[in-house]
Amino acid sequence: MSPADPAGTNTLGLATSPYLRQHADNPVHWRQWTPAALDEAATRDLPILLSIGYAACHWCHVMAHESFEDDEVAAAMNAGFVCIKVDREERPDIDAVYMNATVALTGQGGWPMTCFLTPDGRPFFCGTYYPKDSFLQLLSAITETWRDRRGEVEQASDQIAGELRSMALGLPGGGPDIAPELCDHAVAAVLRDQDTVHGGFGGPPKFPPSALLEALLRHYERTGSAAALQAVTRAGNAMARGGMYDQLAGGFARYSVDAQWVVPHFEKMLYDNALLLRAYAHWARRTGDPVGRRVTAQTARFLLDDLADGDVFTSSLDADADGREGSTYVWTPAQLTDILGPEDGRWAMQVFGVTESGTFEHGSSVLQLRDEPDDPQRLDRIRARLLSVRGDRAQPGRDDKVVTGWNGLAITALAEASVTLDDAELADAARRCATTLLDRHLVDGRLRRASLGEVVGDSAAILEDYAMLATGLLALYQLRPEDSWLATAADLLDTAVRHFRDPQRPGRWYDTADDAEQLVLRPSDPLDGATPSGASSIAEALLTAAHLLDGARAERYLQLVGLTMEAHSVLLARAPRSAGHWLAVAEAVVRGPLQIAVSCAGPSALLTDARRLAPGGAIVVGGAADSLPLLAGRPRVDGGDAAYVCRGRTCDLPVTSADRLAAALGVPG
Question: At a CB cut-off of 8 Å and minimum separation 6, what does 342 contact?
Fold first, then answer.
């Protein structure tokens, strides 16, 4: 046993994860997931009790208070198990393996995840949240089974491990070609699942469909589909006006517990807000919708004000404050009247939907904004007053862990929002984030997953980290090509190709590197979930980089994009709601993708117009002729700036005005 893991102690105070540190004072003898902890289980001949969660998780807090802080429960855990805590955000590879096992055994998953493993990591019993009494009964039953019926445990763990390996074989081959018809089919299937009354897709709980919104916007720009744009408008408005959106400070909560977007699960995640910022920025840029523009500005501000830690962005805000979920955010009529006075209080009740019966617990209400008020200045004044009072309440905790991939999403979103809002501050924030992230997380040529307090953790980055950061760097490069973002992005992509590509199955990717820790199986999940999958993210990054580079590297990237999209096209054919980011990438693929190269001398109004008019997934660069691969042999025209629109390797004649550029792109000017 390592000196850092002495028997009979809790070692989580040594962790770089805020979630693990939340449990450092538990009477449970928690360990981190390390070789020493696994060796301890083998030496003591005890099963592993693996508990996986994250810092902003409400039910993780509930189980901690009920069980992990309880001396009786801790005694049973310490006597019969080697207890290991894992932050799913820091070790998504471990989380993926045992979530697959939990879903396979129980039919559902969630956090906290509670798994019982053999000392070599094979699961034999899995679940999620357990109340104290049920958990004590379970601990007793597992202990007895381990002691008296070991053969049954070994048989079950072998069977489960075998099923997990079978599941890891992945998708069937032979999917359809990536073509306009496949995208049309996928969009039609998605729209059939639309909630045409309340917006979004499916029933409660309702999660923000960030990737689908982006894909539908790209589809609208390619086809002019009114139905696709209507779905985006309906969902965008519903989410922005409902309780899932913070009507005072901006930023989105994790999901809505109801179909109407009224009551959220109050945690706020960086990845949700970055993905939604990108989608709203695109919607606002394309349509000029005032709700889209307002939410773009407010969500960007939320990132900078509430999630920034220096130049980088932290992971989340908790659902709870002072042990109560949502207590920071909800209001009663009496509170509004006391704070604002009778007249403004009544007006605020009407505007924000605050009622005597309430929409949340104990007669309190989550603020909504169902209609734009006729007095925006009054609304701004009331917002400021309520926000000031809210600042004196107990505040949710913040998970200050800095995750590489999620910061990559934020870089991309801020870069795109800077174009929508013509706000150089957002682009500068994205550049600072990228610079700091690379300085801190790129160690000996390889990315690390996370850091805390400027100290980088030991956990290796996964595929999504390389892909999402590379995409962010490529977005920055398009804003300012003289910087070195393209070279750095290409280096990251080369590393990802070398270590994450499946050499036996063309176009398939693993989520962990070939030299990462070997778990029961090597995770490889192509489905888009709360965040885009690593595989769909690497496809986007490779596609963009291929058209910004030239030569053999560009051709190699294009070949990889083709293989990757071909290997996963079955998702668009069979499960498009779980392939939103795949659909967004496919829409770019079938358009070429579009590239706009503006030959200019210095600041250029035409380049600004090109960025404003560019459809989602398009690539836009500007500079002097021959200064970039896309500008090779493309000079200015008659002494003025000129825009060259290309689809794949085919380019139109240059245009010199915004109206002609809009016509060439087939978008409203």
Answer: none
The C-alpha angle 31, 107, 173, rounded to 5 degrees, equals 100
Paired with 446 in beta bridges are 443
Identity of the residue numbered 46? L
Q: What is the mean pLDDT of residues 421-449?
A: 98
d(CA 351, CA 97): 46
- Crossing angle of helices 71-80 and 132-148, in 10° steps, is 20
Tokens describing residue 251: 């930023």
Check residue 170 and give its pLDDT: 67
- Percent share of the chain, pLDDT over 70: 98
Read off the tokens for 514: 């070939």
Return the H-helix or E-strand segment holding 646. strand 642-647
Name the pTM for this structure.
Answer: 0.95
Residue 669 has a pLDDT of: 54
The H or E element spanning position 552 is: helix 551-574
51-99 pLDDT, tens digit each: 999 999 889 999 999 999 999 999 999 999 999 999 999 999 999 999 9
Residue 4: pLDDT over 50: no
Q: Could you tell me where the beta strands, DSSP code E, fall in 229-313?
A: 255-256, 264-265, 268-269, 308-309, 312-313
Using an 8 Å Cβ cutoff, are 645 and 594 in contact? yes
- Average pLDDT over the chain reads 95
Per-residue pLDDT of 151-185, as tens digits, reads 999 999 999 988 888 777 667 777 899 999 999 99
pLDDT at site 106: 92
The H-assigned helical ranges of 342-403 are 342-352, 376-390
Specify the pairing of strand 594-599 against strand 619-623.
parallel
Q: Quick one: average pLDDT of 20-49?
A: 96
Terminal-residue alpha carbon distance, the chain: 68
478: CB partners within 8 A, 6+ apart: 415, 548, 619, 620, 621
Residue 640 burial (10 A CB sphere; 0-12, 13-18, 19+): middle
Residue 455's pLDDT is 95
The residues pairing with 645 across neighbouring beta strands, listed in sequence order, are 596
Taking the C-alpha atoms of residue 278 and residue 248, their distance in angstroms, rounded to an integer, is 20
Three state DSSP letters for 35-61? HHHHHHHHHHCCCEEEEEECCCCHHHH
- Using an 8 Å Cβ cutoff, are 630 and 595 in contact? yes
Please confirm whether the linkage preceding 112 is cis (ω < 30° from 0).
yes
Three-state DSSP state, 158:
helix
For residue 632 the two structure tokens come to 């090779």
Q: Which residues, at least 6 apart from 76, have a Cβ–Cβ distance to it below 8 Å?
A: 136, 139, 140, 143
Q: At how many degrees (to 10) do helices 180-192 and 210-223 cross? A: 130
Specify the pLDDT at position 3: 37
Query: Which residue(s) pair with 402 in the sheet?
Result: 451
Closest to 344 (Cα-Cα) out of 372, 384, 371: 384
Helix (H, G, I), strand (E, B) or coil at 119: coil
Percent of the chain with pLDDT over 90: 92
Residue 490: how many other CB atoms lie within 10 Å: 22
